[in-house]
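Need residues for this backbone.
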């Protein structure tokens, strides 16, 4: 699809909207339609002259609409996107469940509208009438917003969460776009990495104290934290224990996502050193699908790992599933979901497959190459019947059919860290490669401080990492957290 914009500065919103219908896009600026070759096919033309005109030519059919330009530029782009969205739905013969919403945090958008209008029914009406969001997604958003409201309102601006990144995995899953390094052959790097990580953890404890922040949750993620040895895991968690006051911490989570590297000994280390939650991830209950995505474990390996975690006595176990995996079917996905419910996992997180350039799955296929992903997500109604509630959600660019990822929880087992990180309402201090520290201000400000992305750079230029941590104190000073 060629997008031609005349007398318009930004193409971001229009391009993101178009991308939800087709991946093949190019954008031309400052050209009048009359200047295009006569045989130009499949284009969206938007011009802002006396009026705004939106014209879509697709498969030989032409749609056009003109309206007065709103003096508010944001509103004008919204009007253009609404017009283009209606044309695309006719041309492509399908509506999108999230309508023309392209943002990755719909609940956050709902919260900002709620702050403005003060009435949730009004907000839902805006999402339906102005953004064309389906009733089903509005309900999902509203349920999550309502559940999160009490949690968010009870927070303090000086609260923070600690994120620790262990960016190693036994093998790389074909859909993965995270920074993760294969642990095979990386044992030298892992040892050096863990030493530096512990140094950063110690430095962070002192920095947070100087910045006047109060630790509320801890999350050790990755990669797969259990890809390191039991001794290295102990070293990391012992450092946390010795440098932070765990008695004030509301939750402590460790991802033990891969059954092919999570042993009883590592789970015992996690429990002994204070974590009360783990994630053990099946992704699917089908061995055939597991092979297709490059996971080197079977469904039975997952069940054994889950049962070990249960025996060791974690308060909350999360299980991740992915809808839309190659070779999976709606029935297969339903079996996986039912399996997680029957195991009694307190949290079940349902992701929708995302096709990112950094992953090994072919990115150029259209969404309909993959199985009926919306049919799979419809099966999540089983979760409500089993007593689970949705408690956090996010969308990603390039997710199949622009659908969402949702965390479901048994009441009282919601993972606070997931809410804080997705809604960007609390400071998160990150340690390790790929970590991004986000200092949240009292008026919605968010200051990001980046660590190096890859473990090799992290180890090599570690002094820079510590210097960047000092920035947390400066930002907290600017936000007024250090008063008195
Ligand atoms: S376990 Fe997670 S981080 Fe590791 S390769 Fe697979 S998807 Fe990526």
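Answer:
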């Amino acid at each position: 699809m060629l997008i031609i914009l005349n007398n318009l500065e930004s193409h971001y919103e229009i391009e993101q909207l178009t991308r939800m219908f087709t991946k093949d896009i190019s954008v031309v600026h400052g050209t009048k339609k009359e200047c295009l070759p006569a045989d130009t096919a499949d284009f969206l033309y938007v011009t802002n002259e006396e009026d705004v005109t939106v014209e879509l030519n697709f498969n030989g059919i032409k749609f056009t609409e003109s309206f007065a330009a709103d003096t508010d530029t944001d509103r004008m782009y919204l009007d253009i996107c609404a017009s283009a969205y209606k044309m695309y739905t006719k041309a492509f013969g399908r509506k999108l469940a999230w309508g023309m919403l392209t943002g990755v945090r719909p609940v956050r958008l709902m919260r900002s509208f709620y702050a403005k209008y003060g009435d949730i029914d009004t907000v839902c009406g805006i999402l339906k009438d102005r953004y064309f969001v389906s009733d089903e997604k509005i309900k999902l958003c509203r349920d999550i917003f309502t559940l999160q409201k009490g949690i968010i309102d009870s927070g303090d601006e000086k609260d923070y969460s600690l994120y620790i990144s262990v960016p190693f995995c036994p093998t790389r899953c074909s859909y993965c776009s995270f920074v993760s390094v294969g642990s095979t052959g990386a044992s030298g790097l892992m040892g050096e990495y863990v030493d530096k990580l512990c140094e950063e953890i110690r430095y962070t404890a002192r920095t947070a104290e100087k910045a006047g922040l109060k630790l509320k949750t801890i999350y050790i993620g990755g990669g797969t934290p259990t890809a390191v040895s039991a001794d290295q895991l102990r070293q990391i968690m012992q450092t946390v224990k010795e440098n932070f006051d765990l008695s004030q911490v509301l939750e402590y989570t460790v991802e033990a996502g891969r059954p092919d590297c999570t042993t009883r000994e590592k789970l015992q280390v996690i429990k002994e050193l204070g974590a009360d939650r783990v994630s053990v991830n099946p992704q699917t209950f089908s061995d055939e699908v597991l092979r297709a995505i490059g996971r080197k474990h079977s469904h039975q390996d997952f069940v054994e790992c889950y049962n070990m975690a249960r025996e060791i006595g974690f308060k909350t176990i999360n299980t991740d599933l992915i809808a839309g995996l190659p070779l999976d079917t709606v029935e297969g996905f339903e079996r996986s979901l039912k399996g997680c419910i029957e195991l009694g996992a307190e949290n079940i997180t349902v992701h929708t497959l995302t096709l990112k350039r950094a992953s090994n799955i072919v990115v150029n296929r259209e969404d309909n190459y993959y199985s009926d992903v919306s049919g799979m997500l419809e099966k999540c109604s089983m979760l409500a019947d089993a007593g689970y509630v949705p408690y956090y959600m996010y969308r990603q660019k390039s997710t199949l059919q622009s659908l969402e990822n949702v965390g479901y929880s048994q009441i009282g087992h919601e993972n606070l860290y997931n809410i804080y990180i997705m809604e960007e309402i609390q400071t998160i201090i990150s340690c390790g490669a790929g970590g991004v520290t986000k200092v949240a201000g009292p008026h919605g400000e968010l200051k990001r401080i980046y660590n190096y992305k890859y473990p090799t750079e992290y180890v090599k230029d570690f002094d820079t990492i510590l210097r960047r941590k000092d920035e947390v104190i400066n930002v907290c000073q600017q936000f007024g957290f250090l008063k008195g």
